[in-house]
Amino acid sequence: MKVTTLFLILLVGIALGVGGMIFAPDMVDPYLPDAFRAKKTETVEGEVVRKVREGDHLLLTVQTSQGTVLATFRKKMAEIDLLVQQGDAVTLALGRYEPFVTDPAIERVRKPDVALRPKDSALSSPPVGETLQERPPTQ
């Protein structure tokens, strides 16, 4: 009698342990602080080929090496609309690659390289071989 009871308790314990390992992380994860959450994201980098703002959402079409991603943003629309432009390179944090994602985290935005235009200002450096005293006064 005692051996069968111990064996039954052992089997129930194993079943609870296996079930807890499979189902508990998904059930507990939303309640944990960010520091304790399991990071299940991969980063996908690509170029924004189209940006459309329609009413209550913003659509970004991002061309990546894995394929095209259509990202729909409903949160922080105004900020993302100002930050991201067509032609920018963006890095999105996704759970896994999916062609349609809603409100993915944007980890990085890189603007295309643009040549800096020289500005005419009083603080600009003098031409080579000329000192500030030798410059003619500006009017």
Radius of gyration, Cα only, in angstroms?
28 Å
CATH-level-4 superfamily name of the largest domain: Nucleic acid-binding proteins
Alpha plus pi helix count = 2
Query: What characterizes the major β-sheet?
Result: 6 strands, mixed
SSE order in H/E notation? Answer: HEEEHEEE
Distance between the termini: 107 Å
Gross CATH architecture of the largest domain: Beta Barrel
Helical amount among residues, as a percent range? Answer: 10-25%
Estimated share of beta-strand residues? 25-35%
* CATH class annotation of the largest domain: Mainly Beta
Question: How many domains, as an integer?
Answer: 2
Which characteristics define this entry?
OB fold (Dihydrolipoamide Acetyltransferase, E2P), 6 strands, 2 helices, 6-stranded mixed β-sheet, elongated, alpha+beta, 2 domains
Please describe what this structure looks like.
This protein is α+β, with helices and mostly antiparallel strands. 24% of the residues lie in helices and 30% in strands. The protein is elongated and about 80 Å long. The mean pLDDT is 80.
Topology:
Layout: H1 2-28, E1 42-54, E2 57-64, E3 68-73, H2 77-83, E4 89-94, E5 100-102, E6 105-110
Parallel strand pairs: 3-5
Antiparallel strand pairs: 1-2, 1-4, 2-3, 4-6
Summarize this structure briefly.
The protein has two helices and six strands; from the N terminus they run αβββαβββ. With 139 residues, it is an alpha+beta fold.
